[in-house]
Automatic annotation (TrEMBL), chains A, B:
Species: Pontibacter silvestris
Source species, domain of life: Bacteria
InterPro entries attached to this UniProt entry: HTH_HxlR, WH-like_DNA-bd_sf, WH_DNA-bd_sf
Keyword Transcription among record annotations: yes
Domain HTH hxlR-type, chain residue ranges per copy: 12-110
Swiss-Prot/TrEMBL keywords: DNA-binding, Transcription, Transcription regulation
Protein name: Winged helix-turn-helix transcriptional regulator
Length: 123, 123
DNA sequence: ACAATAAGGGACAAATTTATCCCTATGCGA
DNA sequence: TCGCATAGGGATAAATTTGTCCCTTATTGT
């Protein structure tokens, strides 16, 4: 795992939540786990754009940050299940708010995001 | 500006909001602008850990995503003021929810964030 | 005359994150 | 027996983001 050279900024609540939620797939992982997709392979099928490796790394970080819990069943083939901790559950309404805003403004968001991409493509 | 080689995932609301809110300082920029810090130099003083260059870049992206508006006064020395657009205003409650959660769980967050850092330092 | 302030951009370097490839292990079904 | 599914990690490369350094313009204060 990468060892930071520059220490994080931890002044306010926004800094703190940023520390645990930053990561390309973390929010979606939390969401899908909350929806009952507990096993790594299920999560990978839900998020096919992510590489297996990175999902594993981000799951591990979420676990170290105590947002999710991991249970390893000692069977073959291996079986692992994740679930939200209480701490993780407390984040659900917040993620929900993010998702609602995104859904509510879906049209406009797609538009402005794509506009910027096209602009850059023309450079 | 960097031209992406891998296209973004834009399936759901969470993907979309992620596109416009990702960036180390973006959420804090929105927050400070909302609080009335309109001029670039004020924002830089509020966020001294960020480099001038990067703040400028992220401000430009927020503007391109129509979350903030920029007014340039044709005077010398230059004067520029940013403000939230209506679209940006609609995000305030969401950011507020993020900040509240972070503040509410400040102790625990610092603890788990630091624990992980120490663990890595020992590697 | 010189430094400070204001805003911002080009060129480049460094940090950080994400992805690709390959390897481990075991039981099940064709 | 071959191949798949299951979970995951090491080594390494590529993508992406962030930071540093320097340069421009014109006015105000010392």
């Amino acid at each position: 795992m990468y060892k930071r050279k520059i220490p994080p900024t931890l002044n306010c609540g926004l800094d703190l939540i940023g520390e645990v939620l930053y990561g390309k797939w973390k929010i979606r992982l939390l969401w899908f786990i909350k929806e009952g997709n507990k096993r790594p392979s299920q999560l990978q099928r839900k998020i096919p754009d992510a590489s297996r490796r990175v999902l594993n790394m981000q799951l591990k970080e979420l676990e170290e940050h105590e947002l999710i819990a991991k249970v390893i069943y000692p069977v073959v083939p291996p079986k692992v299940e994740y679930s939200l901790t209480e701490f993780g559950e407390s984040l659900v309404p917040v993620i929900s708010a993010l998702g609602h805003w995104g859904d509510m403004h879906g049209e406009r968001l797609r538009s402005v995001i794509l506009k910027r991409s096209e602009y850059l493509a023309g450079q």
